[in-house]
Amino acid sequence: MVDVTELFDGLADRYDRSAGYFAAFAGPLVELAEPAPNGIVVDVAAGTGAVTGALRHRLGENTRVLAVDRSIPMLRRLRRRRLPRTQVALMDARRLALPDRSIALVTAGFLLHFVTDAGEMLREARRVLAPGGVLLASTPGPCDDGGWWQHYGEVLAPYVAQVSQRRPTDMNDWAHDIGALAAAAGLVDVDRHPAEVHLPMRGPEHYREWLMSMGNRWIDDALAPAAAAALRDDIIASLRTHHPAGGHRLDAGATLWRMRAPR
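RE: above sequence
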């Protein structure tokens, strides 16, 4: 069994390279940082820098971005982007090496739904936020997809059952109530904003490759070769027969969260 860090270490070189899924949601997320802060902002679980790059594009010269992650290969790829006024650091979102009440803005793109204790991460964000400081986060959400994502889950289910004991540690099943956890962490003015994207794909094979560049890669890696091949065929068949665009378009939704520390 691997942990989540090892999983994403192995994905770093191909992570979301073929679709731009994270970047598509990063822009709308950072637009919620209004007014734009000065000083230092922190992008936790920055990965290869989708939100970091959007922050750098959105914020002025008086703002520095600290991008943190616990995957060294992800950070290595982010450093290669050479974003201006951006520092990259190895850091765990649950234990940020930052002073209390010191940060005007914290971002967390597609993190909170993924971990076993989102409340712990929200409490840590609350600790480092200055009075009135803002936390922006994104989690998966509904979209107009013709029911395909639900069908994809049904395709995965029997394969997940075969290897459930090998699920990476620290990985959750996406069942958090983010609003309730944010309130319990002492964050206020919790708002949610729906968003969705529709991105071109080259077809079912390309779509399946993109899926395997994401967190569900662990299922494919954990299966025996014959079962992994069967899963591949089932995903491609699902895209061809159940997807509204036959696997030639990525339809995805997100919930964009904005909350703040009390003043």
